[in-house]
Amino acid sequence: MTYLVYLIPCVSAAASFNLTTINFNDDAVAESIQRTVVDDILVATAMSLLLAPAWLRVQRGKWVVRFLQKIGATKRYGDEDVWDFLLSSDDPRSRYVNVRDEQTGQTFAGYVDMFSEARGLRELVLSQVEGFETLTGTPTIQVTRMYLARDPKGITLEFPAQDTNILVQ
């Protein structure tokens, strides 16, 4: 991208960098390299400030993977695991979950506020949480916010919402 910016006529006229092969044996070229390095650093820094948020949006939207799926080059969903894929989804139905906790024998229902992307431990922060005994359905807890940290093998997520209109938080 920096190279493309230097191709813009007004930038190339103002910059001392002219995109030609550099002959390090020439004293005049060696002297001008200092100006060139400063130009490169300034333009590259400006480009990074502009492109970093754009690249984050491309990554979050999984545009590259979606394009590759569309042309049939891959069937991969683009995240490290399905946990990340589901909880990062823009689908409103993935915001409300039932968490079946095998350690406590309870099911917690609530909106996902935050989640971890670490492999070793599954962490969730839920809001508007209602807890139930999994086997009987007896209500056990009702809290505004709850943090859960569990081994990946001891937790199951369910996405009960079918109508996106009921998911207004």
Structure description:
The chain is α+β, with helices and mostly antiparallel strands. It folds into 2 domains: 2-61, no CATH class; 82-167, SH3 type barrels (Roll). The chain contains 5 helices and 5 strands. The chain has helices at 2-6, 9-14, 27-61, 63-70, 82-88, and strands spanning 96-101, 106-115, 122-133, 139-150, 155-158. It is elongated. The two termini are 41 Å apart. The mean pLDDT is 77.
Number of domains: 2
Instruction: Output the CATH topology of the largest domain.
Output: SH3 type barrels
- Number-wise, the strands total 5
Query: Could you name the ranges where pLDDT drops below 50 across 5 or more consecutive residues?
Result: none
Q: Structural class of the secondary structure composition? A: alpha+beta
Helix content: 25-40%
Order of helices and strands: HHHHHEEEEE
The CATH top-level class label of the largest domain: Mainly Beta
Largest sheet: 5 strands, antiparallel
